[in-house]
Automatic annotation (TrEMBL):
<keyword id="KW-0966">Cell projection</keyword>
<comment type="similarity">
    <text>Belongs to the ARL2BP family.</text>
</comment>
<dbReference type="GO" id="GO:0051457">
    <property type="term" value="P:maintenance of protein location in nucleus"/>
</dbReference>
<feature type="domain" description="BART">
    <location>
        <begin position="1"/>
        <end position="92"/>
    </location>
</feature>
<keyword id="KW-1133">Transmembrane helix</keyword>
<keyword id="KW-0963">Cytoplasm</keyword>
<dbReference type="InterPro" id="IPR023379">
    <property type="entry name" value="BART_dom"/>
</dbReference>
<feature type="transmembrane region" description="Helical">
    <location>
        <begin position="36"/>
        <end position="56"/>
    </location>
</feature>
<dbReference type="InterPro" id="IPR038849">
    <property type="entry name" value="ARL2BP"/>
</dbReference>
<dbReference type="GO" id="GO:0005929">
    <property type="term" value="C:cilium"/>
</dbReference>
<keyword id="KW-0206">Cytoskeleton</keyword>
<dbReference type="GO" id="GO:0005758">
    <property type="term" value="C:mitochondrial intermembrane space"/>
</dbReference>
<dbReference type="InterPro" id="IPR042541">
    <property type="entry name" value="BART_sf"/>
</dbReference>
<dbReference type="GO" id="GO:0005813">
    <property type="term" value="C:centrosome"/>
</dbReference>
<dbReference type="GO" id="GO:0005634">
    <property type="term" value="C:nucleus"/>
</dbReference>
<comment type="function">
    <text>Plays a role as an effector of the ADP-ribosylation factor-like protein 2, ARL2.</text>
</comment>
<keyword id="KW-0472">Membrane</keyword>
Length: 92
């Protein structure tokens, strides 16, 4: 969804300069990650509430045909390294 991507880009624009490609993770990454998860969790609650059983079934039947970007984005909510990599890619 274009609106979601705009909100995500705005969030990344706000925080991307904090990230660098060093092996050591900065403490600020944790607070940015927690803010990201809290904020975008609301979107997923609304989204899953909106989905009906038929849409869920349709998704399950065609998930292999869907673009990988949504799955990559979902991974950023549960995997800190994927979250950090998203910011490093954005910064590049």
């Amino acid at each position: 969804d274009d609106d979601f991507q705009l909100i995500q880009r705005t969030f990344m624009e706000k925080h991307y300069q904090e990230f660098d490609d060093s092996e050591e993770n900065k403490l600020i990454y944790t607070s940015i990650f927690n803010e990201y998860v809290r904020f975008f969790s609301l979107f997923f609650i609304l989204f899953t509430t909106w989905l009906s059983n038929s849409l869920t079934s349709l998704y399950r039947q065609h998930k292999d045909e869907m673009a990988g970007d949504i799955f990559d984005m979902l991974l950023t909510f549960t995997d800190f390294l994927a979250f950090k990599e998203m910011f490093l890619d954005y910064r590049a």
